[in-house]
């Protein structure tokens, strides 16, 4: 369900993603498939397991 929500509302948009602890991942949502969110931050890809996401918000 979360994967469909991300694709529908955040695909090709800039977001911040919080997974706990001090780290917040930022970037443009370029893909969300197989329960993995992929962010592009200035050409560097970050892959995040959707089940680890606590919060996600637009920039």
Report a brief summary of the structure.
The protein is α+β, with helices and mostly antiparallel strands and 59 residues long. It is built from 1 helix and 5 strands.
Give the CA-based shape: globular
Number of helices: 1
pLDDT < 50 stretches? none
The fraction of residues in strands falls at over 45%
InterPro entries: DUF6897, MM0924_fam
Pfam family, one: DUF6897
Structural features, described:
The chain is an alpha+beta fold and 59 residues long. The chain has one domain: SH3 type barrels, CATH 2.30.30. The chain has 1 helix and 5 strands; from the N terminus they run H-E-E-E-E-E. The chain has a 5-stranded antiparallel β-sheet with strand order 4-3-2-1-5. A hairpin with a 2-residue loop joins strand 3 (36-41) and strand 4. The longest helix has 9 residues, at 2-10. The model has no long low-confidence stretch (mean pLDDT 97).
Layout of helices and strands, plus pairs?
Elements: H1 2-10, E1 14-18, E2 24-33, E3 36-41, E4 44-49, E5 55-58
Antiparallel strand pairs: 1-2, 1-5, 2-3, 3-4
Name some characteristics of this structure.
five-stranded antiparallel beta sheet; 59 residues; single chain; SH3 type barrels; 5 strands
């Amino acid at each position: 369900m979360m994967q469909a929500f991300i694709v529908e509302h955040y695909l090709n948009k800039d977001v911040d993603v919080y997974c706990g602890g001090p780290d917040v991942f930022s970037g443009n949502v370029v893909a969300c498939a197989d329960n993995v969110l992929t962010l592009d931050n200035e050409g560097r890809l970050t892959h995040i397991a959707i089940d680890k996401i606590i919060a996600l918000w637009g920039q």
